[in-house]
């Protein structure tokens, strides 16, 4: 997810109308597994497209290699490390979106360096401190990241959720409201319009509040 969406439209929408939202965050982005593509370096064109067409998009029985081999991330190894940290946070917090989202918003806002290999871990500790996590919780996340079995399980789960999208995601952030993509419009307004029950008071201001605009940037 892009920094602007995580700290802007998504964060403000959840804060405004959390009572009508069943929210899921999938930290995978434009990544893919190199096992089935044969890629050793990232290729957003043929590589990612081939992976999506072979391993997702409604494919009933994808090859085992679809979720094996190196994970290739658009912005390099640190993006992969960040995705894994976020995936492990989700896992350790039992997939409770309103428990894990404060960490995600903080972590995405750290603007992690793409080169320095210590940057994702430093961001984890910075956000853990900011959110008042216990040392035990931070160690649980680190243990998940360090465990080949846990890391593989977390990564495959997020990869499969991303690959399964029909139509395929066109970039990041890829925001869906009731299964339909929000294409750079007002995320809060889209959520309010999709909700069939009594509208929260905040929905009345949705069309006039510029802070809730979802960015359409592919990052």
Structure in words:
A two-stranded antiparallel sheet has the order 1-2. Strands 3-4 form a two-stranded antiparallel sheet. Strand 3 and strand 4 form a beta hairpin. The protein has helices spanning about 5-15, 45-55, 75-90, 95-110, 120-130, 135-145, 150-165, 185-195, and strands spanning about 30-35, 70, 175, 180. The N and C termini lie close together (about 10 Å). The chain has a domain at about 30-165. The model is unreliable at about 210-219 (pLDDT under 50). It is about 45% helix and about 5% strand. The protein is mainly alpha-helical.
Strand content: under 5%
Mean pLDDT, all residues: 90
Major β-sheet strand ordering: 1-2
Element order: H for helix, E for strand: HEHEHHHHHEEH
Rg, Å, rounded: 18 Å
Helix content: 40-55%
Shape: globular
| Number of continuous helical runs | 8
Identify low-pLDDT runs. 210-219
Number of strands: 4
Structural class category: mainly alpha
For the biggest sheet, the summary is:
2 strands, antiparallel
Calculate the terminal CA-CA distance, rounded to whole Å: 8 Å
